[in-house]
């Protein structure tokens, strides 16, 4: 079955305002708005960008410092997406800012998506984990005020004080799983 654009235009002209959805023979229900309205506005999850840099079976982690989140814990080099930025451009920016390395945004491989909901959170966060296929420069700690140190760890011997969702994502990546949804029902 195909519908022409003339048929769509005619249907739209016949129904200019949203109305009740009524089954044949049923009483009409209330009219619902055409769009979701909420005092908080549309749903927007925070987006975290993570670099998974592995060399000879070792993964690069940094120990966080002066942070309101997971201070003193080990974490992948990471940051947040900024307005007007693509996820790959943001990941390349974080690599430059935190590690002093150059990454072509087109040379990033998405390894894992973790949609996380914490007990004290109602909106969740979307954590994206990328592997740079190639990078230029030498890895160094460019943000010593935020990162106490960088260290290479064996994937099967991560430190005890690693950020829990980081450990979860690395485990899922090792199993070849591209998606996890910790904290969400079902």
Task: Describe the protein's architecture and organization.
Residues 20-29 have a biased composition (Low complexity). The protein has helices spanning 5-14, 87-99, 164-174, and strands at 46-51, 54-55, 58-64, 74-75, 78-80, 108-116, 125-132, 147-154, 179-180. It is built from three helices and nine strands, in the order αβββββαβββαβ. The chain is an alpha+beta fold. The longest helix is centred in the middle third of the chain and has 13 residues, at 87-99. The model is unreliable at 1-24 and 29-38 (pLDDT under 50). The chain has one domain (46-180): Alpha-Beta Complex (Nucleoside Triphosphate Pyrophosphohydrolase). The strands form two sheets. It has a five-stranded mixed beta sheet. 18% of the residues lie in helices and 25% in strands.
Keywords:
Nucleoside Triphosphate Pyrophosphohydrolase; 9 strands; Nudix hydrolase domain-containing protein; four-stranded antiparallel beta sheet; hydrolase; disordered N terminus; alpha+beta; 186 residues; five-stranded mixed beta sheet
Helix and strand layout, with pairings?
Elements: H1 5-14, E1 46-51, E2 54-55, E3 58-64, E4 74-75, E5 78-80, H2 87-99, E6 108-116, E7 125-132, E8 147-154, H3 164-174, E9 179-180
Parallel strand pairs: 1-7, 6-9
Antiparallel strand pairs: 1-5, 2-3, 3-4, 3-8, 6-7
Using only C-alpha atoms, the radius of gyration works out to 23 Å
User: Biggest sheet: strands, sense, closure?
Assistant: 5 strands, mixed
Under CATH, the topology can be stated as Nucleoside Triphosphate Pyrophosphohydrolase
Class of secondary structure makeup: alpha+beta
Number of helices: 3
Rough outline: globular
Could you tell me how far the N terminus lies from the C terminus, measured between alpha carbons in angstroms? 36 Å
- Taking all residues together, what is the mean pLDDT? 83
Order of helices and strands: HEEEEEHEEEHE
């Amino acid at each position: 079955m195909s519908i022409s654009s003339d048929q769509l235009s005619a249907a739209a002209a016949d129904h200019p305002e949203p109305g009740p959805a009524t089954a044949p023979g049923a009483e009409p229900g209330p009219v619902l708005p055409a769009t979701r309205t909420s005092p908080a506005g549309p749903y927007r999850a925070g987006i975290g960008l993570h670099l998974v840099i592995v060399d000879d079976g070792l993964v690069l982690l940094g120990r966080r410092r002066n942070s309101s989140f997971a201070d003193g814990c080990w974490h992948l080099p990471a940051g947040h997406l900024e307005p007007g930025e693509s996820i790959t451009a943001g990941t390349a920016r974080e690599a430059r800012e935190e590690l002093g390395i150059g990454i072509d945004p087109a040379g990033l491989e998405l390894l894992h998506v973790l949609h996380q909901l914490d007990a004290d959170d109602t909106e969740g966060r979307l954590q994206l984990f990328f592997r740079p296929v190639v990078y230029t420069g030498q890895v160094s700690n460019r943000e010593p005020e935020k990162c106490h140190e960088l260290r290479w760890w064996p994937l099967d011997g991560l430190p005890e004080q690693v950020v829990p969702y980081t450990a979860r994502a690395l485990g899922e990546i090792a199993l070849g799983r591209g998606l996890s949804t910790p904290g969400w029902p079902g």
